[in-house]
Design a protein that fits this description.
This protein is of the alpha/beta class and 390 residues long. 40% of the residues lie in helices and 20% in strands. The protein folds into 3 domains: 110 residues; 36 residues, no CATH class; 183 residues, Glycogen Phosphorylase B (Rossmann fold, 3-Layer(aba) Sandwich). Helix 2 packs antiparallel against helix 3, helix 5 packs across helix 9 and helix 8 packs across helix 10.
Length: 390
């Protein structure tokens, strides 16, 4: 009787098709699958209900307003049998609020706060339970970095193989470009181009710090331009409560010359690759979180990367060897490192070469894909009982 394996995927990469006509990312689909899990959706409904309850309770603090309006015509017959018409239009506005409601509103708000806090804990516990339930029953887990694997209980580490998704090094290859031409942007003949890439503009990926670093960079190199490839949304953290985007907030806080700072949104793969190849310095910033493909793809293109000194970036970049590390929380340090790289280009040549070599030796898809397949074949066979994966 054949044995069926359940493969629990912590993180998978792009699946490339001939000619790169299109690509599909399971890393985008996986969060969507988790968010539509019936237990998680039920927990989210309970949280939303608690938020609504709290809003209702808070309503007790605000004045009650009674607005009434009426209008129409009145006909009056005078003694001389002449009929006159009067137009009536009145409004009444009355605001009331008890000076003291015997603590009812306060207790209602406190009860609603408690319900909301329990609902939040319940939602997070449900998410963790769904993940752990899959991990308990799977044969094999795959984690792309040591840091991500370390976030799981050590009890399961033997089940989790550490192997990255892989980068197509034939596609993401060095090709030095002078200037950059995109459908809505022509930077032909400009000076240095500084690039930043992320799914969204948000704190998880250091967007605020990057924007705060730009005035110093633009002042130090008056000919340079900045290209930001990202959508105006939050993908990982919480959106701002006032409905504004982090782009809105940062541009209000930091005046920038938008003739030199270009927000190009998201790009097709071919245009995105051109950005990486044209980059004089590519800035990659992240909190301790999932490592972005854009970092490895920039390195694969032989890019000079200024990256945040955070895990799991440290697993890839050695400061001064194949990239430059900067303090994630210091816009000044980020700017200083970028300016240094732009000022001394001769220093960057061996760093760029080592960056490319790092990806070819450790992250090439052509080497890692067979390892992924071998893991799956092993998990589907009796050999999986003979030893740990991790």
């Amino acid at each position: 009787m054949s044995r069926t394996a359940t493969i629990f995927i912590l993180c998978l990469g792009f699946v490339f098709f001939p000619g790169h006509a299109f690509s599909q990312t399971l890393r985008v689909l996986l969060p969507e699958l988790l968010n539509t899990h019936e237990r998680i959706m039920a927990a989210e409904d309970r949280r939303d209900e608690a938020i609504h309850l709290r809003r209702q309770a808070l309503g007790g603090w605000y004045p009650k307003v009674d607005l009434s309006a009426d209008g129409g015509r009145e006909w009056t017959r005078q003694p001389n049998n002449i009929t006159t018409t009067d137009y009536k239009n009145t409004q009444r506005l009355r605001a009331t609020q008890l000076v003291w409601d015997f603590g009812y509103t306060q207790s209602g708000v406190e009860r609603a706060d408690q319900v909301l806090e329990r609902a939040k804990v319940d939602l997070e516990s449900t998410r963790q339970a769904v993940m752990l339930n899959d991990l308990v029953h799977c044969d094999l887990g795959v984690s792309p970095t040591r840091w991500q694997k370390a976030q799981f209980p050590r009890l399961f580490h033997d089940k989790i193989a550490e192997i990255h998704d892989g980068v197509d090094t034939d596609y993401f290859a060095p090709e030095r470009r002078r200037g950059l031409v995109l459908p809505n942007l022509d930077l032909t003949g400009v000076g240095n181009i500084v690039t930043y890439v992320s799914r969204g503009m948000e704190p998880y990926r250091g967007f605020p710090q990057f924007i705060e670093a730009l005035p110093e960079i633009l002042k130090a190199d008056p000919a340079c331009h900045v290209v930001i490839v990202a959508s105006e949304r939050v993908c990982y953290g919480k959106p701002l409560p006032n409905g504004k985007t982090y782009k809105d907030v940062m541009l209000e806080k930091v005046p920038l010359d938008l003739t030199r700072v270009h927000f190009v949104g998201t790009l097709p793969y071919g245009e995105y690759k051109k950005v990486l190849q044209a980059s004089a310095v590519h800035v990659y910033l992240t909190r301790p979180f999932v490592l972005s493909w854009s970092l490895l793809e920039a390195l694969s293109c032989g890019g000079l990367v200024v990256a945040s000194d955070t895990p799991p970036v440290r697993e890839v970049i050695r400061d001064g060897v194949n990239g430059i590390m900067a303090d994630f929380n210091s816009p000044s340090d980020i700017a200083s490192k970028v300016i240094g790289a732009l000022t001394y280009p001769s220093f960057t040549h061996p760093v760029r070469e080592k960056a490319r070599k790092t990806i070819e030796e450790r992250y090439a898809l052509k080497a890692l894909l067979p390892r992924h397949l071998a893991l799956i074949y092993r998990a589907a066979s009796k050999e999986s009982r003979e030893g740990p994966f991790g």
